[in-house]
Design goal:
alpha/beta, about 350 residues, seven-stranded mixed β-sheet, Aspartate Aminotransferase, domain 1
Length: about 350
C-alpha cells in the first residue's frame, strides 16, 4: 500500500504512523483490555487523554490562556448554526465575506438566524485569474456582532494568508481545511473553528477555539449541545463526545509535534504545493485559474485543456494508485488535496503521472 496516495478533500488521509499506532492500540488501549472507543468518556484514563490532546493542540498553535478549546459534535456545518446563536447576543447583524463554496454555505445557514451582510470579495485580475480583494479593502461594519470568513476554500482552491484587521469586531474563521498547516496568530481571532476531517483526524469532530469574553451571551433558544458556555463548563463532555475521533486527533497532534511543529509543517506544505503548481504552470496541457497570491496550499484544482480526456485521466490515475482526484461537482475538473499527511512522495508521483499522461495524449 506504500504506492497508494489518497488526494481526497475530506475525509482525508491520516498520517501513516498514526494509523499504525491506532491499529496497534485498537483492541487494547493502554493495557486496559478494551478499545479506547469502549472507554467511558468520564473515566480517569480517557479524561487524561482528552486533556493531553487539548494541551498538545494549545502547544502547536500557541493558543493564549484566555481562549477555550472545545471538542464538539456536528462538524463544521454544525458550527454554521452554533456561531450566530452564540455570538450575536443582542445584535441583529453579522458580516459574512464570500470567497467560495464554503463561505456561501455558512452564510446561507446564518441567514436563518440573523440579518446577514454578505459581500463578495472575489475579483478577477487583468490576466483573467480569480483573486481576492486585499484585506485592507474588505468592508467591515463596525456595528456587526462579528465578521466571518473562510481562509481556505477547498472547492475553489483559494487561500487567504493575510489576517484581516477588524478592530473591536470579533473575527471568526472557518479553518476546517487550513488549520495546523502553518503557524497563525490566534490572538487576532475571536473564534476559530474547524471540522476535523482534513488536518486533524477523522470526520465527526469539530474543534472550536473561542475567546472567553465571547462565551456566555448565547440566545435562549440555542440547543444546549451548541452552547459554548455549557460545553466549556463541562470540558466538552456535556454529553458523550466523539470519543474515537478525539483520541485520533490527539495522536495527530503528537505526530505534528514530532515533525517539528507547524513551522516545519509549513515548509513541507510549501514544497509540496510549489512542486505541483510549478508543473501545472509549465504545461500547456493543464491549467489552474487562481491568482498566485491566493492559491491554496491544501487544495489544488486544475483542469485539462482538452476536457474530453477527463474520464481517461481519472481512470489512469486510479490505476496508478493516485486516488480521488476528481474535482468537486460544482466546478468540475480535477483537484489534488495535499494536507499535512500527504507526503512529498505522493505529490512527486502525481507530477510524474501527469507528465506521462500529457506525453501520451498530445
Amino acid at each position: 500500500m506504500n504506492n497508494i496516495f489518497n488526494f481526497c478533500a475530506g475525509p482525508a488521509m491520516l498520517p501513516h504512523d498514526v494509523m499504525l499506532q491506532a491499529q496497534k492500540e485498537f483492541c487494547n488501549w493502554q493495557d486496559n483490555g478494551v478499545s479506547v472507543m469502549e472507554m467511558s468518556h468520564r473515566s480517569p484514563e480517557y479524561m487524561a487523554m482528552a486533556s493531553e490532546a487539548e494541551q498538545d493542540l494549545r502547544d502547536l498553535m500557541d493558543i493564549p490562556d484566555n481562549y477555550k478549546v472545545l471538542f464538539c459534535h456536528g462538524g463544521g456545518r454544525g458550527q454554521f448554526s452554533a456561531i450566530p446563536f452564540n455570538l450575536l447576543g443582542d445584535k441583529l447583524e453579522a458580516d459574512y465575506l464570500l470567497t467560495g463554496q464554503w463561505s456561501k454555505s455558512a452564510t446561507l445557514e446564518a441567514k436563518k438566524y440573523a440579518r446577514i451582510t454578505d459581500t463578495n470579495i472575489i475579483t478577477i485580475t487583468e490576466q483573467g485569474k480569480t483573486s481576492v480583494l486585499p484585506c485592507a479593502q474588505w468592508p467591515i461594519n463596525a456595528g456587526a456582532a462579528y465578521v466571518h470568513y473562510c481562509p481556505n476554500e477547498t472547492v475553489d482552491g483559494i487561500e487567504i494568508f493575510e489576517i484581516p484587521e477588524t478592530g473591536v469586531v470579533p473575527l471568526v474563521a472557518d479553518m476546517s481545511s487550513t488549520i495546523l498547516s502553518r503557524p497563525i496568530d490566534v490572538s487576532k481571532f475571536g473564534l476559530i473553528y474547524a471540522g476535523a476531517q482534513k488536518n486533524i483526524g477523522p470526520a465527526g469532530l469539530a474543534i472550536v477555539i473561542v475567546r472567553e469574553d465571547l462565551i456566555g451571551h448565547a440566545r435562549r433558544a440555542i440547543p444546549s449541545i451548541f452552547d459554548y458556555e455549557i460545553q466549556a463548563k463541562s470540558n466538552s463532555m456535556y454529553n458523550t463526545p466523539p470519543t474515537y475521533s478525539w483520541y485520533l486527533a490527539g495522536l495527530v497532534f503528537k505526530w505534528l509535534k514530532a515533525q517539528g511543529g507547524l513551522v516545519e509543517v509549513e515548509k513541507r506544505n510549501i514544497e509540496k504545493a510549489s512542486l505541483l503548481y510549478s508543473f501545472i504552470d509549465s504545461s500547456n496541457f493543464y491549467e489552474n485559474n487562481i491568482d498566485k497570491s491566493v492559491r491554496s496550499r491544501m487544495n489544488i484544482p486544475f483542469t485539462l485543456v482538452d476536457e474530453s480526456l477527463n474520464s481517461a485521466f481519472l481512470s489512469a490515475s486510479k490505476a496508478a494508485g493516485l486516488l480521488t482526484l476528481k474535482g468537486h461537482k460544482s466546478v468540475g475538473g480535477m483537484r489534488a488535496s495535499v494536507y499535512n499527511a500527504m507526503p512529498l512522495a505522493g505529490v512527486q508521483a502525481l507530477v510524474k503521472f501527469m507528465a506521462d499522461f500529457e506525453k501520451d495524449n498530445i
